[in-house]
């Protein structure tokens, strides 16, 4: 059994209207959730496939860190899907610096966060003092590296260039992987 603590204001998102989201998580992740709505404590017990059940606490954690339940459920789509958390507070000197660093990651009108999602293919959420990422390992790595660049003070253009370069490398790798190799060469 795993114990996960989520912010009280995210308990409603975890449970859903009439308990619908909670039941869907229990069914798809093959777990049983016991939610204490008073303090945000969630007990996650595996009741089916143990490998699938390992994703249960990650789904609860992701919802607790601001992801929509349907985005958190993407962790079940593939064995390699990851949930990663970047602690923005650890990079900040004080509350004012935390707000500034969060602003750098979000960007004007959410543009920086959106570019991270578009170029990496991962889902990105900034909630409280953390940045959550859901995606395949290479996608999560791209976002983490770009976020660390921004947190260390790199210009946004440098982070965007890094993401574009990695995005193009991914596309090239995908093309070479899917290229038909049967045929005659000239």
UniProtKB/TrEMBL annotation:
Gene3D superfamilies: K Homology domain, type 1. The keyword RNA-binding applies. CDD domains: KH-I_Dim2p_like_rpt2 (cd22390). It comes from the Archaea. Residues 3-81, 82-152 form the K Homology domain. This is KH domain protein. GO terms for molecular function: RNA binding. It holds the Pfam family KH_PNO1_2nd. Keywords: RNA-binding.
């Amino acid at each position: 059994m795993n114990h996960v603590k989520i912010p009280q204001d995210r308990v409603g998102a975890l449970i859903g209207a009439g308990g619908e989201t909670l039941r869907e998580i229990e069914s798809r992740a093959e777990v049983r959730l016991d939610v204490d709505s008073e303090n945000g404590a969630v007990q996650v017990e595996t009741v089916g496939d143990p490998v699938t059940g390992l994703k249960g606490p990650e789904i609860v954690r992701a919802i607790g860190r601001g992801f929509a339940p349907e985005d958190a459920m993407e962790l079940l789509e593939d064995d390699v899907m990851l949930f990663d958390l970047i602690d923005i507070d650890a990079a900040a000197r004080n509350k004012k610096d935390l707000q500034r660093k969060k602003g750098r990651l979000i960007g004007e009108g959410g543009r920086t966060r959106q570019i991270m999602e578009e170029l990496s293919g991962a889902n990105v959420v900034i909630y409280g003092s953390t940045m959550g990422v859901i995606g395949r390992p290479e996608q999560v790595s791209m976002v983490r590296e770009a976020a660390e660049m921004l947190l260390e003070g790199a210009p946004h253009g440098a982070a965007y260039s890094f993401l574009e370069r990695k995005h193009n490398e991914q596309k090239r790798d995908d093309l070479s992987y899917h290229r038909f190799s049967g045929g005659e060469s000239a």
